[in-house]
Amino acid sequence: MTIKNLNRSLFTALWLALLLSLSVSGVAAEVMDVKALYKDHCSECHGHERLGAMGPALLPQNLKRLRRKAAIKVVTDGRPSTQMPAFGKKLTANQIQTLVDFVYTPLTEIPNWGMREISASHLTLNAPETLSDKPLFEADMDNLFVVVELGDHHATLLNGDTFEPIKRFPTRFALHGGPKYGPNGRYVYFASRDGWISKFDIYNLKYVAEVRAGINARNLAVSADGRYVMVANYLPHTLVVLDAATLEPLKVIPVSDGKGNSSRVTAVYTAAPRNSFIAALKDIPEVWEINYADTPPARFNEHKKTGKSAESDPFVVRRIKVNGYLDDFFLNQDYTRLVGTSRSGSGQVVDLDRGSAVDTLTLPGMPHLSAAITWQYKGHTVLATPNIKEGLVTVIDMQNWKIIKRIKTGGPGFFMRSHENSPYAWVDTFFGPNKDRVYVIDKRSLEIVKTLRPIPGKTSAHVEFTKDGSHALLSIWDMDGAIIVYDAKTLEEVKRLPMSKPSGKYNVHNKLTRSSGTSH
Ligand code: DHE
Question: Would the pTM count as exceeding 0.85?
Fold first, then answer.
């Protein structure tokens, strides 16, 4: 090599080293910044490692359906129907772009949460032989309410006749979805957003067991025979079957299409007349029906393809192909139809026996089908759904799936409730300037007959009726909140009970009888 060539090589090497060091320190500075930004603005809700907490996990595999441009809009403007606030006035466009790039960066390692980890998390808190088979208190066990108090992560067991609290006890952090009762109402099961499942014995007022079924969970369902609990997860992409007696894990079902694509689970429900769980998926256009009977019926014939007998696998998955992803869904009273929508509002009706979509449904705004209810109107069954984007209740004829009425309210609502013995349906306004209002709709005329404003300025939301439908309980969603009991006929206030941000309340009878006026 000549001196000239040597000089040129040295010069090039120096340049490369300089460029490399600049880019490395630049990247390092940015990583430092974005981590601080994330810590200050996102980690409280989405978890320190982006694995989810009160808000969902922020990882590329869970953001597949959200383009970066749309993600920037979400961070800037907030996301309708969620607790995601707008950061447009707090952060610069560059900071938002940096954060969005960060959440689309894969984690170096996602913690495993399979059978081994789930089993290791299992806790027996009170052994069954130490618990009494008789309730320790006097009350109509069918007319109890469990009230979830999100404010300080507690739950209150409430007597539905006297409206006196029986017991207030701590829960896991950030419960979400309705707690679910076992068959005779003795046990109630809770799911937290960070995957903890807890079983509480109402007779003994004590927890029985706990297990962490996922890192970021959606909800749980209890089989109608009381033998199994199924947990729907966002992270990992799994459905988990637990023994309902002990909460020990029995099976982890990976949620994938078999072609390399996995999916978050939108939610899972029990379809009692079918002896199955029904789950909708967010990232794969399929609905899954998972049998829990010892002998699955003929429609579960998937196993034939594998040559395995159905009996060798009690949780056979039946895949039903549908026309798109389902972000929200509703099951009709006899569990023959699933009505599902994506966030855009485009919907479909799936015949669960035939195993295919049989109708389409275009609903305005963003219907909240998991909070929809049904009743009889002029000889037809109608479905009414609140809307989390518009101040609107949409009433649909369930025979021909046509919209028969759009009822305007003061703003987007989250929950809708009624009871077989009440002529009224109640709907809240969760967002906007009228968030303190609740509308009472006459189910016979489909007109609003009263607007309640229990505490001006404070969000009032989520109603549940007593067993006989005589009273309606409403939440004031505030740290300094309350449950307000109304006479369901006169619509007059009867009692106020102070509570810490009471989110939902769940009546044993209405849930176990699958009242058409409430969620199941
Ligand atoms: Fe919920 C139930 C999905 C945000 C409070 N919510 C449900 C269910 C689903 C669902 C699928 C039914 C499960 C069940 O009961 O077993 N919720 C979603 C979302 O996709 C959404 C929009 C975004 C998200 O953050 O996951 C969402 N939900 C919220 C909230 O922001 C609320 C208001 C406060 C919170 O707790 O995070 C909220 N959701 C609730 C409540 C129920 C619920 C209180 C039970 C209602 C019932 O009466 O059954």
Answer: yes
Listed in sequence order, the DSSP H helices in 405-519 are 508-512
Domain for residue 329, yes or no? no
HSE value, Cβ hemisphere, 13 Å, CA-based, for 141 = 17
Burial 112-142 (b: 16+ CB within 10 A, else e): ebeeebbeebbeeeeeeeeeeeebeeebeee
Judge if 467 and 380 occupy the same domain: yes
Q: What is the span of the domain harbouring residue 55?
A: 3-103
SS3 label, residue 314: coil
Are 418 and 499 contained in the same domain? yes
- Residue 89 sits in a domain whose CATH number is 1.10.760.10
Of all protein residues, the one whose alpha carbon is nearest to atom 1 of ligand 1 is 177
Residue 279 lies in a domain: yes
Residue 477 Cα to ligand 1 middle (Å): 14
Q: Which CATH number does the domain housing residue 278 bear?
A: 2.140.10.20
Cβ-count burial 405-427 (b if 16+ within 10 Å, e if not): bebebbbbbbbbbbbeebbbbbb
Residue 430 located in a structural domain: yes
Query: Does residue 336 sit within a domain?
Result: no
Domains in the chain: how many in total?
3
d(CA 336, CA 11): 75
371 alpha carbon to ligand 1 midpoint, in Å? Answer: 9
Q: pLDDT class for 308, splitting at 50, 70, 90?
A: low
Whether the Cβ atoms of residue 349 and residue 358 lie closer than 8 Å to each other: yes
Residue 345 has pLDDT above 80, yes or no: no
Q: Are residues 134 and 275 in the same domain?
A: yes
pLDDT tens for each residue of 28-69: 444 458 989 999 999 988 988 898 877 888 988 788 778 899
169/300 same-domain check: yes
Best of 176, 235, 416 for a ligand 1 pocket test (most atoms within 8 Å of beta carbon): 176
**355-384: per-residue pLDDT in tens?**
999 999 988 888 999 999 999 999 999 999
Tell how far the Cα of 124 is from the centroid of ligand 1, in angstroms: 28
